[in-house]
Amino acid sequence: MNESYLLIEESKQLKGVLKVSGAKNAALPLMAATILTEEPCIIRNVPNLLDIKHMIELLTDMGKKIHQDKNTLYIEGPIKNKETREDIVRRMRASVLVMGPLIAKYKSGKVSMPGGCSIGARPIDQHLKAAKRMGVDIEIEQGFINLKASILNPIDFTFDVITVTGTENVLCMLSTIEEESILRNVAIEPEVINLVEALKQMGVDINIDEENRVATIKGSKYLKGFDIEVIPDRIEAGTFMVLAVATNSSVKIENVNVYHLKSIVDNLKLAGANVDILSKDSVLVSSKNSVINPLNIETSEYPGFPTDMQAQFMSLLSVAKGESSIVENIFENRFQHAQELARMGACITIHSKTAFVKGVERLKGAEVFSTDLRASAGLVIAGLMAEGKSIIRNIYHLDRGYDHIEQKLEKIGAKIKRVNA
Ligand code: EPU
């Protein structure tokens, strides 16, 4: 095995400050939205991640001029090539986000069909259904989606399922249509709202009634550039919060948006943690005593408990005093980390979409394999909690979504090292 891995030793009572980076899942749709205009766009607080590099590569290949200065991206110019490279789409499903902007700006495009991934089949039928309704001809051929329209029509469309990138794609698709469109059952994740802010700056009139999940959009034929800050990554923040409790530490977490963390804070408090909201952008998390209470968690769309935090909580609950249940309602195959945690001594049984986690006294270090991005984060937490040494392999998953996590954690005293084999 000739790949980097993480070597982790039990690390307790960490102390210090962790700074959260910008949200990958907000930065990616903002980057794709630059296709809507040739004017310069500025995106600030962009995290330094593999997925961001892939999106830069994809947009550059399509003709965009991109300049990166630390965490700021300057993107401008027209698209010359309306086809997405298949190898990049294979590496990053979020490439599908260029579809909406291509339709809106150029009324045509050829986008490689994203396949499923380890957490589920992940269809994009809702993105395509809305496009068809607008008058886009769609042909699926040799793994590519060919899109072509002579005119784009406004729509009144209800999503059959709540989809984050689906909502983002369709909002972009409608952004050049001057007549009013209505979207119902939309996703209202903070990352979607970040994109809406950029679209508004571009000249799109959008109103989102979050309570009823209804978006009203009036586009503009000519869209301007934008200058926007990526929101703090609520999943990185949540990962650090769980990690603080799991390691019996006291950690201040900065650069967060506390309004985006409610369900995570509520559950950590139920588990017995102290969470002090210090300001609108910082929290102090510590464990009251070393006892973790069991929880009953169900993942759901925002503002519910995020599926992207499920693996991290599973690690924490594996040493709770009693039995917890975790219902995964979003992705059908997102419990693969359970078998890796079992190698570390966790006691987890899975029945359909529910995992029952019976708390054990301690986890024991082991060699484990990441199966997806958030599973890797869960394994890092487990490794820090476990007695002895752990090795985490397949950490390219982790690099897709966490900006230098081992460097951040080392600074607060964690024994974690990247080994380049
Ligand atoms: N779905 C459909 N049809 C569609 C679209 C979605 O049936 O056309 C289903 C999916 O199969 C899934 C559910 O709807 O069961 C929700 O999927 P959604 O489309 O919301 O997921 P996504 O947009 O592909 C984003 C994040 C994920 C995060 C989910 C849920 C990005 C780039 N990705 O994915 O992030 O888990 O929303 O919140 O925004 C991660 O960061 O690790 C990650 C996987």
Keywords:
421 residues, UDP-n-acetylglucosamine1-carboxyvinyl-transferase, Chain, 2 domains, four-stranded mixed β-sheet, 14 helices, binds uridine-diphosphate-2(N-acetylglucosaminyl) butyric acid
Structural overview:
This protein is α+β, with helices and mostly antiparallel strands and 421 residues long. The protein is built from 14 helices and 23 strands. The chain has helices at residues 24-33, 50-62, 86-91, 99-106, 125-134, 164-173, 190-202, 234-246, 262-270, 310-317, 336-343, 373-385, 396-399, 405-411, and strands at 5-9, 15-19, 41-44, 65-69, 72-76, 108-112, 137-141, 144-148, 156-158, 180-184, 205-209, 214-218, 227-229, 250-254, 273-279, 282-287, 296-298, 323-327, 347-351, 354-358, 367-369, 389-393, 415-419. The strands form 6 sheets. Strands 21-22-1-23 form a 4-stranded mixed sheet. Strands 2-14-16-15 form a 4-stranded mixed sheet. The chain has a 4-stranded mixed sheet with strand order 4-5-3-13, covered by helices on one side. Helix 8 (234-246) packs parallel to helix 12 (373-385). Bound molecules: uridine-diphosphate-2(N-acetylglucosaminyl) butyric acid. Uridine-diphosphate-2(N-acetylglucosaminyl) butyric acid binds at residues 25, 28, 94, 120, 122-127, 161, 163-166, 191, 307-308, 330-331, 373-374, 401. Uridine-diphosphate-2(N-acetylglucosaminyl) butyric acid (EPU) binds next to helix 1, helix 5, helix 6 and helix 12.
